[in-house]
Structure formats: structure tokens, C-alpha cells
Amino acid sequence: MLWVATHRTHHQFPDREGDPHTPLDGKWWAHVGWILVGNAMRHDASTLDRYVPDLIEDKFHVWMTEFHFLPTVVLGLALFAIGGLPFLLWGIFLAHRFWDSMRPGSSIRRHTFGVRGALRPGIYRPTVGGWLC
């Protein structure tokens, strides 16, 4: 839910005041600074009410926001129990590569390191069918 609120805020204020990761604040900030040291992923209840009211009503998304780490921990414990450290290391690596293409968190990495870095060297490009944000 936090990432969705940040993303919706970004689309409401693209590359201007209020954009949580505008390139106008610098290339480093637009690329990773907002993730590493910014407050864009720490929203209060009023911001969530405004930008993600649909997700706040969905118990699954509320649970995933609260316990996002749990699937990885359970997988790690199961792999370690089955085959020790080698299973754990290979299993987490392979599972990460497989699930990374399917979970919402991978979208933020592709968006941040792909589109923003490659297609925005200081020039805003509008979306085309929703693919370039």
C-alpha cells in the first residue's frame, strides 16, 4: 500500500512540487535517494486514506503491508530444514529471481532503475499506453 500511495502521488504531481521522486531534485534523488533516505515510503493515515482508500478496505493488502517479510522467512526456514545452508542459499536466490518478476516490489525496482534512469536524462517523457511512467 505504501508504494502504491507513493506511485499515485507521483502521477498526480509528475516532475513538479509534490512529486516524491522528481528528477528536478537531482538524478541521484530520482534514482534511489527517495528510497534510501526519503520519507516517500512512510505515509501517515491521512495520506493513505487519500491515495489508497481502495486498498485500505482490502484485508489481503493490509496484511501484506504489515507482514511483507513473512513469505521469505517461511521459505527460508523450510529450505534450511530440507537441505541445510546450500538449499537455503540456492533456494532463496532462485525463488527471488522467479518471484521478483511477479510481485509488486519488483515493479518499483524496474521503474526506478529502468525507465527513470534510461529514458529521463532530464527530459520528461509522457506515458505511452501506461508503459512509460
Notes on the protein architecture:
This protein is mainly alpha-helical. Residues 127-133 have low confidence and may be disordered. The chain is flat, with a radius of gyration of 17 Å. It has 7 helices and no strands. Helix 1 crosses helix 3 (45-51) and helix 2 (27-36) runs antiparallel to helix 7 (104-119).
The overall average pLDDT, rounded, is 77
Ranges with pLDDT <50 over ≥5 residues?
127-133
Proportion of residues in β-strands: under 5%
Based on secondary structure, the structural category is: mainly alpha
| Oligomeric state of the chains in view | single chain
> N-to-C terminal Cα separation, in Å?
18 Å
Gyration radius, to the nearest Å? 17 Å
Q: Can you give the helix content as a percent range?
A: 55-70%
Helix/strand order? HHHHHHH
Instruction: Please tally the helical runs, counting DSSP H or I stretches of 4 or more residues.
Output: 7
Report the major sheet: none
Q: What is the count of β-strands?
A: 0
Overall 3D form: flat
Characteristic terms for this protein:
disordered C terminus, single chain, 7 helices, 133 residues, mainly alpha
Task: Give a short overview.
The chain contains 7 helices and no strands.
What is the topological layout?
Layout: H1 2-12, H2 27-36, H3 45-51, H4 53-56, H5 59-66, H6 70-100, H7 104-119
